[in-house]
UniProtKB/TrEMBL annotation:
This is MalT-like TPR region domain-containing protein. It comes from the Bacteria. SUPFAM superfamilies: TPR-like (SSF48452).
Length: 321
């Protein structure tokens, strides 16, 4: 594996490929392999662009032959393009085109997991294009569900969890200002809960914590005639996530979860059976969580998140005086 590729190193690799006595298919495979090595640990955006150049060369060598290798070159290029920081949509649209061109060939010639991974990544690109009105949530959900036919919880628990998480987030985004708000938010909660039937704390701790944290968020903001019940369920979900997330090993994830839990606590009475007794204990716990989260965000230079928590803390302390 090549840790970093300079322009001269890419040229040398391409020259070596040209001069070798290997077959065309072997040359294409070598170019794809080198590009994959670059993308494993790119040090700069230029490394990613160099990988794109290698995939383009592999694509060019395919000409009208080697359809599966050509599809893999397009797939690799799409994976590279979607990781390059870009405020606009040009690179995402290029990635989308490459995925869509590769998918029919993968469907015919590739293994089911290779096809499902491409579908999953195309879903991520489509989800990124939605704010620009260049894709629809229904497209994302549909392609994620296609990937779930292969990425089952028995064989691919990590991908299974991520797909259900992404589907739920798509449903939550669809609910904003929608007439079907209750339906979409209910489907989001259902997607989290479906995944959590199979993703457990012992075998899949990272995915378990992600799903529990995001389930808590969905429950907390779910319109309901039983807000106490939903907030209690949200706090329980956050507590499950906090069995994994901690300030030492996963500080940013921990800070996000305790800030989310604080948001729920401020809306809960200390004793749900006697709401008239107030919530001074929960308010104090929320203040403590906000303070912890603020310190972690500042330490890790997460200024935007620190500002949000700081504002919530100020409002809470002002209302608590």
């Amino acid at each position: 594996m090549i840790p970093s590729m300079t322009d001269s190193a890419v040229k040398a690799a391409m020259k070596a490929i040209t001069e070798t006595s290997a077959t065309t298919s072997e040359k294409i495979e070598m170019l794809i392999e080198i590009a994959q090595g670059v993308l494993k640990k790119p040090k700069t955006a230029n490394d990613v662009w160099n990988a794109v150049a290698l995939y383009d060369k592999a694509d060019e060598l395919c000409q009208g032959e080697h359809p599966l290798l050509k599809a893999r070159a397009k797939l690799g290029k799409a994976n590279a393009l979607r990781t390059i920081p870009d405020n606009g949509t040009q690179l995402l649209l290029q990635a989308k085109t490459n995925y869509q061109e590769a998918l029919p060939v993968l469907q015919e010639l590739a293994s089911p997991p290779e096809l499902a991974e491409a579908q999953m990544n195309l879903g991520l690109v489509l989800q990124s294009l939605i704010p620009f009105k260049l894709a629809q949530f229904t497209e994302c959900i549909q392609i994620y569900q296609q990937a779930l036919r292969v990425f089952t919880y028995q064989e691919y628990p990590q991908e299974y969890a991520i797909l259900h998480n992404n589907i739920a987030i798509a449903y939550l985004s669809m609910s904003t200002g929608s007439q079907q708000q209750y339906l979409y938010e209910g489907l989001a909660v259902q997607s989290f809960e479906t995944a959590l039937k199979h993703i457990n704390l012992i075998e899949h701790p990272k995915e378990y914590a992600m799903l529990q944290n995001n389930l808590g968020n969905a429950l907390q903001y779910l319109p309901s005639s039983h807000p106490f019940k939903n907030n209690l369920r949200a706090v329980t979900a956050y507590d499950e996530a906090l069995k994994i997330r901690n300030a030492q090993d996963t500080p940013l994830e921990y800070a996000n979860t305790i800030a989310n839990k604080a948001n729920a606590l401020i809306n809960l009475p200390d004793n749900p059976e006697k709401p008239e007794s107030g919530n001074s204990r929960n308010l104090q716990e929320a203040i403590n969580y906000y303070q912890q989260a603020f310190e972690i965000f500042i330490k890790n230079k997460q200024d935007e998140q620190a500002q949000v928590v700081s504002q919530a803390l100020q409002e809470l302390e002002a209302g608590n005086e």
